[in-house]
Amino acid sequence: LRLPLVALLLLVLSLGGHAQPPSVNNIIPKPVWVNALGKKPVPVTAQTVIVADAPFQEQATYLQGLLQKQLGLTLKVVQGAKAAGNAAQIYLKNDPSAAPKPEMYVLQAQGNQITVKAKDVPGVVHGLQTLLQLLPLQKVKTAEVAAVEIKDYPRFAYRGMHLDVSRHIFPVEFIKKYIDYLAFHKFNTFHWHLTDDQGWRLQIDAYPKLTSVGAWRNSTLIGHFKDQPARYDSTRYGGFYTKDQVRDIVKYAAVRGINVVPEIDIPGHSRAIIAAYPEFSTRPDTTWQVANTWGMYNRQNNVLAPNSQTFKFLETVFGEVADLFPSPYVHIGGDECSKMWWKADPKTQAFMKANGLKDEKELQTYFITQVAGYLAKKNKKIIGWHEILEGKLDTTAIVMNWGGAKEGIAAAQLKHPVIMSPGKPLYFDAYQSKDPKDSLAIHGYNPLDAVYNFEPVPAELKQQNLGRYIMGAQGNVWTEYMGYPSKVEYMVFPRMTALSEVLWTEEKQKNLTDFKKRLQQNMIPRYQFWGSGYFKDFEKWT
Ligand code: TNX
Q: pLDDT tens for residues 249-259?
């Protein structure tokens, strides 16, 4: 008789009366300080109100949407503590003295009140992500949050994820979903790789052919499996984002505490530009096309020529980009610029001579310096891939190293701010398994454990007391073999979850075994709840 009774009770509970509050020890990324108060849990019901101080109104609405999805409860949003009175509440409080650091939050749950204190939008957003993890992941009438106090702030100031939309473009809805993923993981930067040889993806008013011509190629990837070579057919493929779409995305990200850094990759990786405007190349006589396959295009011109038309183009394009994106930084690319076309071109050689540039590396630096100058007029700093250091640059340029750690170390020693994104282990286009049947990827094996164990500040810089030049790190998602959103999700999860803890949590607090436990208990159900693709077999391959 007892057993059916227990079963009945469990059924009633799971049908949504009530749910146990999740453990305060399962939060990802691991918070700096958690103090379980051992008191009665705090209930959250449809009667609970969300109260926000004026600067956090949009975050209150954001939280309302998140709770609606997670709990199936629609909470009312009111402005200011007075309006809420003594009602059970979740209070988003602007409180610089309680949370003095950038992006810091203090979360307190006690009695019938949950308070998230912060002094800036990212801080309050991080607090909300923690709150979501203290609430059950199911539809309920009454949810409970354990009585707790949490003080939390990030280890690194720059915590980024990148997405290449040139090799494959993704719908606006997915870009927003990706931003939601970043926000959940307490990243603060979305690096949007908008241009490359295989397609230009941003509306530019002054140069319409960038999108009418440069956004389209005549090849579509159809083979995605490791046990097959990549296969393409000759279907037209492409698209681009309008400025209105971009504004909408930038705003969406800002509400979630995420800065969007656009990348316009020059002076190499410029096939799409040259297909649209051959006059910016060293061989304007040729009918160049947007690249149909991947790889470096040494033999098929993808490098801009240094002439007055090109520099006018760059000033105009970066001007429009600077006006569109509020980000304090713009990424100017600078990677893998082949020098052979400059070497072979008499006009380029004459330009170099006239400007006192002794080799092509200096010419590359000249390009970067010009663009940095255009952007400085708009109050923006540049970020560039580490090759921008082939020549001498002023130290306001932020260096993103994609090779190994060594380029990052060299940049820090020159006193440049550095964003670490070494291919191993931060390229999430590499394989997560050794399974020969795995979905097609690049660059060999780069498992979850390697990402988790990554330390952004190399020992050499610690010894030299130069660790402060490391702004943070970033996971890169090159999409040559990611033709649709769920493939992106499959490649980033769970590795970006591991990276979030690398970037947020103090080094001495990291623990791989504990992380994997939290991953299983807290994140796997969440990937499923989000309806996301993810790599399931990480236990087997790490
Ligand atoms: C190198 S990393 C590139 C990208 C490719 C990537 C593939 C970098 C700055 N350039 O153009 O997509 O390898 O992993």
A: 999 999 999 99
**pLDDT tens readout for residues 7-22:** 665 555 555 456 689 9
Tally of structural domains, the chain: 2
Q: How far, in Å, from the CA of 45 to the mean position of ligand 1?
A: 48
User: What angle, rounded to 10 degrees, do the helices at 57-71 and 243-255 form?
Assistant: 80
The arithmetic mean of pLDDT across residues 25-35, rounded, is 98
346 & 369 share domain: yes
Q: Is the CB of 335 under 6 A from ligand 1?
A: yes
Taking only the tens place, the pLDDT of each residue in 172-193 is 999 999 999 999 999 999 999 9
Nearest CA to ligand 1 atom 4: 478
Domain check: are 433 and 476 in the same one? yes
Same domain, 125 and 162: no
Q: Which residues of 52-81 are buried (b: 16+ CB within 10 A; e: fewer)?
A: bbeebbebbebbbebbeebbebebbbbeee
**Which active-site residues does the annotation give?**
336
Question: How close is the Cα of 217 to the center of ligand 1, in Å?
Answer: 19
Q: What angle do CA 454, 457, 463 make, to 5 degrees?
A: 130
| Whether residues 344 and 479 fall in one domain | yes
Is residue 107 within 8 A of residue 146, CB to CB? The reply is no
Q: How close is the Cα of 478 to the center of ligand 1, in Å?
A: 7
Nearest-atom index, ligand 1, CA of 265: 9
pTM of the model: 0.95
Q: SS3 for 38? A: coil
